[in-house]
TrEMBL record:
Protein name: Uu.00g124790.m01.CDS01
Residue span, Reverse transcriptase domain: 42-141
Annotated InterPro entries: RT_dom (IPR000477)
Pfam families linked: RVT_1
Length: 146
């Protein structure tokens, strides 16, 4: 609803945050809400694992992170920095595409009498603990345009 003025302001904040490598203090603060997981018995509800902490972040931060993430993904795709087998968060790579690829590989292996094993990695949580300067160094070594 705010249109171009809001986009310009957010772009400026994002650019400054990106150039400085820092977030405003207001963007670093999160409100943590603890929600119970569904289907837990009264006995299970006495255990910490029966609850899910949710971090409520600033909406502006989320918008800026999304814009930066989209730009990084576009650059990674443009420069061929992602492995061919990576499916998550890539255009033209649906769940159906991933399943078809796995099934095709399994059938190909079986046709040679081989045993098929599947290993999946979900690295989403890893990024919460990553060292920003190390990530930048790795991206630079891989050829990501800085």
């Amino acid at each position: 609803m705010c249109g171009k003025p809001l986009r310009v302001a957010l772009a400026e904040v994002a650019e400054c945050s990106f150039v400085l490598g820092k977030w405003l203090k207001q963007f670093k603060t999160a409100l943590i809400v603890v929600l119970p997981k569904a289907g837990k018995t009264p006995e299970e509800k006495t255990l910490p694992g029966a609850y899910r902490p949710i971090a409520l972040l600033s909406c502006i931060r989320k918008v800026i992170e999304k814009v930066i993430g989209n730009r990084m993904m576009e650059a990674a795709e443009t420069h061929g920095l992602l492995p061919e087998g990576q499916m998550g968060n890539r255009k033209g790579r649906s769940t159906e595409h991933a399943i078809r690829m796995v099934v095709k590989a399994v059938y190909a292996g079986w046709s040679y009498g081989a045993v098929a094993t599947l290993m999946q990695l979900d690295i989403m949580g890893a990024f919460d603990a990553i060292v920003f300067t190390r990530l930048c160094h790795i991206l630079w070594k891989k050829g990501y345009p800085m």
